[in-house]
Formimidoylglutamase (Lentibacillus salinarum), 315 residues
Amino acid sequence: MDIYIQTDKGLWTGRIDDATDPASHRFHQAVQVMDLDELTASRHAFGIIGFASDEGVRRNKGRQGAAQAPDEIRKFLAKLPYNLDGRTADVGNVHCKENKLENAQTELGRHVTAVLQQNITPVILGGGHETLYGHYFGAKAYAGPDKTIGIINIDAHFDMRDDPEPSSGTMFRQILEEDETAGYLCLGIQTFGNTKALFETADAYGCEYILEKDITANDFQDTFLTIDDFSKRYDYVIMTLCTDSIKASAAPGVSAPSPLGLDPKTVQTLLTYVAGKKHLLSFDISEVNPLVDESDKTVRLAAYLVAETMRAFYK
Ligand SMILES: N=CN[C@@H](CCC(=O)O)C(=O)O
Ligand SMILES: [Mn+2]
Ligand SMILES: [Mn+2]
């Protein structure tokens, strides 16, 4: 198996209301499957990239299965109405082979950079949350050493573990250690999703965060202000959704479920608010695990959140 595989066109199938009228089209009629090197400047608004890896979850002692999420999310996204502007290309999946996570993250980064260089917005379907490291790596290569990147993460967890081996629990510590100009805002932190030591690590590294229970206070006004203040300090922003930020009753299909997680509509509000930022480069959704899902509930929700975020992207 190669590390890069073009998407099986059979994943993009669904109901056909009208074969020719674009106003009746669903994603499966609008998305064009191609190789990365077939992308040409400005023809597409979005470029879907899958990251078929759960090696980071394995290393972090979690429940594996997220490597199957990119194709499962595609199947559900395919059936949704294409109620957005601009065209979408699907440039396939980057796979993690032989547990070589760092190689796969480098390759994901190469894809993200190449898509951005074509003036196309990457929409990355993870993968365990180790997806974010490759996502950041590609965005940073595009931005260049003189430009700063702020990362907005919607997550129950900080993912700032001090483990010697990179995993799905270490990315933000890795990034903040490697790039002193990077910033980290985490929305939806669970009090009982992180040890006291991890809260101390977050403070020590200058991570800004809002607890899950404080997100909806004041009808989001404080949250939006925090997002605004954070975003304007960076040349570019990237956004990542760790699906375990959503309450377990709505998102059971994750490695580490959150019984007291955010409502899906709260996450929708956060994603669409950040997507309206002019300097948001890219977005990933991570930690969907189809193998422990219940009646496809989490995969379906993931597809809706991806569609909502794409629709809200600043144009
Ligand atoms: N990606 C991060 N995962 C969490 C898992 C927590 C748990 O297993 O309960 C973490 O490392 O903190
Ligand atoms: Mn998490
Ligand atoms: Mn995470």
